[in-house]
């Protein structure tokens, strides 16, 4: 099968060898696996981080967002059959989705929304799982709670779906941050009640909106840059959820306000084969239902064309530059 891989993690994305096409054996499904013929993929920041930071001795297939058609199933599979359309984010411990075929445990795959194209569906699994787990499993937001959620970096992949979930499924007042007018308009269209500029002090902007403090914060990017003022605007006994990779995060400043700190990594369940691993199948199923009912929409931002090394290098370059709006998808080989 065709696959796009990396081997030298020291190469800049401008180098044609940083991501290149090769031929690999078609994988065979394990007992609980689906063998999926991949039709579309999305590119995430984790793809670029692994390519830059993880050294390998053999070519590695990146990518953890895919939509496609089940071609074969393992002997223990009960939820899917050949011919089913699925989408998934997979496991970071396995080969990724930059390939014609991929393997995924059925417990972390979901039925693709009937109303979506393959490309639109591929934009969603990793960010939907991250956003859902952050909102309901980590921050433990309950429906009916009338508080404020501040989303730092609301225009990115996770922020785009988190904004929709929070505004559609909860009674929270959603405040998103952005520094560009086009991104602010995008966030607003997804259901955010207010937008503030994360290049300016948070406190005065929130007070101008009549918000004295914030119960929930989802810090999706540059947490270390904003950390001091995040704490400043948070309410006592508030909850802070983080998904990025700050060099250092000192929990001591959270003590006076008894702020709780929550890490969200959607790969945790599959990495450790947790007892509740099938929760990701349930989340993806719920997201598909919301999509088919028109309650939320795909966060597909740009379609970069065919799945090949050149287009993937271009996508990595945009993500590394921090200028992506919504999700970048590629489709077909």
TrEMBL record:
Domain spans labelled Enoyl reductase (ER): 14-330
The protein's assembly and partners: Homotetramer.
UniProt keyword annotation of Oxidoreductase present: yes
High-level lineage: Bacteria, Pseudomonadati, Pseudomonadota, Gammaproteobacteria, Enterobacterales
Similarity-based family: Belongs to the zinc-containing alcohol dehydrogenase family. Quinone oxidoreductase subfamily.
NCBIfam families: adh_fam_1
Name used for this protein in its record: Zinc-type alcohol dehydrogenase-like protein
Main location: cytoplasm
Subcellular localization, as worded in the UniProt entry: Cytoplasm
Domain of life, per lineage: Bacteria
Database matches in SMART domains: PKS_ER
Keywords recorded for this protein, A-Z: Cytoplasm, Metal-binding, NADP, Oxidoreductase, RNA-binding, Zinc
Cytoplasm found in the keyword field: yes
């Amino acid at each position: 099968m065709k696959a796009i891989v990396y081997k030298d993690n020291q190469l800049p994305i401008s180098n044609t060898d940083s991501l290149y096409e090769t031929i690999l054996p078609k994988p065979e499904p394990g007992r609980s696996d689906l063998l999926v013929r991949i039709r579309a993929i999305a590119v995430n920041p984790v793809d670029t981080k692994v390519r830059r930071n993880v050294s390998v001795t053999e070519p590695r297939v990146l990518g953890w967002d895919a939509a496609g058609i089940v071609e074969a199933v393992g002997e223990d599979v009960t939820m899917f059959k050949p011919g089913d359309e699925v989408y998934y984010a997979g496991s970071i411990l396995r080969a990724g989705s930059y390939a014609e075929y991929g393997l995924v445990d059925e417990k972390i795959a979901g039925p693709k929304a009937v109303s979506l194209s393959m490309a639109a569906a591929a934009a969603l699994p990793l960010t939907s799982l991250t956003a859902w787990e952050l909102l309901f499993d980590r921050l433990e937001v309950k429906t009916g709670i009338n508080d404020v959620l501040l989303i730092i970096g609301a225009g990115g992949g996770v922020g785009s779906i988190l904004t929709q979930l929070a505004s559609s499924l909860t009674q929270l007042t959603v405040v998103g941050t952005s520094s560009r007018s086009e991104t602010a308009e995008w966030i607003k269209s997804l259901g955010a009640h207010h937008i503030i500029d994360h290049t300016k002090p948070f406190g005065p902007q929130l007070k101008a909106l009549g918000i004295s403090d914030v119960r929930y914060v989802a810090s999706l990017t540059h947490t270390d840059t904003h950390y001091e003022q995040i704490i400043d605007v948070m309410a006592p006994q508030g909850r802070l959820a983080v998904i990025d990779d700050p060099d250092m995060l000192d929990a001591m400043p959270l003590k006076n306000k008894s702020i709780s700190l929550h890490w969200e990594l959607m790969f945790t369940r599959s990495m450790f084969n947790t007892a509740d691993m099938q929760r990701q199948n349930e989340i993806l199923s719920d997201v598909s239902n919301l999509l088919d009912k028109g309650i939320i929409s795909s966060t597909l931002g740009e379609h970069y064309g065919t799945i090949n090394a050149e287009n993937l290098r271009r996508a990595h370059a945009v993500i590394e530059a921090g200028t992506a709006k919504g999700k970048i998808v590629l489709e077909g080989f």
